Each structure stands twice: as C-alpha cells, then as structure tokens.
Amino acid sequence: MPYKRTVSLVAALTLGVTLTACTGNTPEPQGGGNQSGGVKVANDEPGKKVVIGFSAPAADHGWMAAITDAAKKEAGKYSDVELRVVEGTNDPNLQISQVETFINDKVDAIVLLPFDGAALTPVALKAMKAGITVINVDRQFDSPFAARSTVLGDNYGMGVSAGTYVCERLKDKPGSVVAEIAGIDSLPLTQDRSKGFAQALAGCGLKVGNRVAAEFTVESGERAAANLLQAAPKIDALWNHDDDQGVGVTAAIKNSGRSEFFMVGGAGSANVMREIKADNGPHKATVIYPSTQGADGIRLARLAVQNKSLGDLVEVEIPRQVQLYAPVVTKDNVDRYLPTAFES
C-alpha cells in the first residue's frame, strides 16, 4: 500500500472513530459483563450455561501468559460460562490429549491456541464432528472445517503499521538508515511482519538497511541488537518485532551508549508503553499484536453455543474469521491501550 494512501486510510479511520464518539446515540458504559469492550449489550445477559475448554501453549513468554490470563478473566465476567483450563504445553501430543479429554467430557466449546496448527487439526476436526464448537486462536488449522471461527492477529499489518509510523517520522529525512530486529526467521509470522514493514517503507522511498533476527527471547534480543549496533555505525530508526525480546534489545542499546535513533516495538507490552508514556527511552511507539485473542475466543464460543450474534453486526451468526487490528501506540494514545497490555 503506498505511503500516502496508508496515511489517508489511517486518518479516515481516526476521523470515523472521532465522529462515532460524538454521536448522540453512543451508549454510555454500564456495569456488567462487557467491561473491556466498553458497553454492556443484550448479548451479555445470562443465558444457557456454556462449558468451555481452553488450551494454549506454555506461558514462557509475556504475550502467551497474557493470552491465558485474559481468557480466564473474560470467562469470569459471565455467570453462564464454566471455563476449564488445562496446563499450557509446547508438546503437540500432550495438547492433543488435552483436547481428547475435552471431547470425552462433552464440553460445549473448545477455545484452542495450538502450539502447532497442523498437528492439532485432526483432533479439532474430531471435536467439530462431535458437535463441539471449536474456536481457533492465533495459529490456524490446516482445514477450514476444524473450527467454527478463527481469531487472528495481523502480522503483515504489524509491519505495515510500523513502517508507516517510521515513514511519518522520517518523511523529511531522505536517505535515512532504517534497521530491523526480527523474530524467528523461519516462522511465517516473522516473514509476514518483515514483508509488511518493507512494503510500507518503500511507499516513502526508504528500505531496511540493516537487519538481524532473534528468537523472541530477552537473551536473543540482546545478542542480536549488540551485533546490529556493531555493524551499523549510524541508525535513524529501529523496528523490533517483539517487546519481550525488546527487553534485551533495550539493554544492548543502553550498554552501547547510542541515542541517535528512535525505536518502534512490537506486540504491545506494558513496560514498553510505560516507557513511551514517560518519554525517557528509545521507544517512541509500539505496534500491537493483541493478547486479547484468547478472551475474544471465549466470547465467540459463548455466543456461538447460545446461538447469538455479535452485538454490533447485522449478521445473525458470528463471523467465520476475526482478524484484529495492529494499531500504533504512541505517547498521544498510550493511555487507551495500557489497560490491556501484557507484562514482559
């Protein structure tokens, strides 16, 4: 998407939100189930009891821990939801066994963030054939028949958002040096983020001059950043794909004594947002990859089992797929996003 077109789209969306907020029929926030969504709607009224099984990978990463925590909190808002959470695991065979148990227990729905989407597809298909509503989160199954609905982040959109922000900051500085610290290069999500970033930069005549890959960990982030800083004597902007590995990236920057560039984070951790708000470090923005996906999966599972629709849609069924937006968080809007941020 060309740079000017991207900026115009963002401006139009912002204007739309502003106009919506000013209309007289915007409902006022109320108490009750739908707190994180802003207002209480008819769908939040208690209905048929829904037993939901929840399974996700091990919480060995701040974002992943937040996924499960948000799902638990969301289920706790509804008196008609019973949530059964199994221990997070990075073993596909153990996760398959967990889903088999849910099937044998005849739960009403399963919200599943698979460690490996392909490996979990057959058991998800089995659950669907047994009449259990499956909501797929973040990592997609191989078959469209394995889930009633899928909740996704937008990895390509993260790159576009980060690149657009960098273009806005450097639009009067042609020839600026842009660097990138990616995650695990073999993963499609990393490839999508880098592709979106490169294409957004191309729209304003910039490109990535220095790039290294890390492993979504603090240690790998520090190591990759140290190598990058040594190889690049001058940088104007740096995008780091992941705020967890960004803890290490920030440490390496501090150790280097470098301060000539600004940094854009990725995923949306609370510690990075606090730094953005304080304006006392290299981070001037971060791009959100929502850790609310599991919570959204809980809501969709409840609505699907109770034969309800999404309150703000005319359609009488829940969507087949929901892809969440990747907004840029800056000092100007950080207070809006801090409440749902995860801790690195």
Features:
single chain, alpha/beta, Rossmann fold, 2 domains, six-stranded parallel sheet, six-stranded mixed sheet, 11 helices, 12 strands, 16% strand, elongated, disordered N terminus, signal, SBP_2_dom
Secondary-structure arrangement, i.e. CATH architecture of the largest domain: 3-Layer(aba) Sandwich
Rounded average pLDDT: 89
Query: Which structural class best describes the helix and strand composition?
Result: alpha/beta
Instruction: Report the helical percentage.
Output: 40-55%
Cα distance spanning the termini: 32 Å
State which percent range the strand residues make up: 15-25%
Q: What's the total helix number?
A: 11
Count every beta strand, where a strand is a DSSP E run of 2 or more residues.
12
Order of helices and strands: HEHEHEHEEHEHEHEHEHEHEEH
The CATH class name of the largest domain reads: Alpha Beta
CATH fold title of the largest domain: Rossmann fold
Number of domains as seen in the coordinates: 2
- Give start-end ranges of low-pLDDT stretches: 1-39
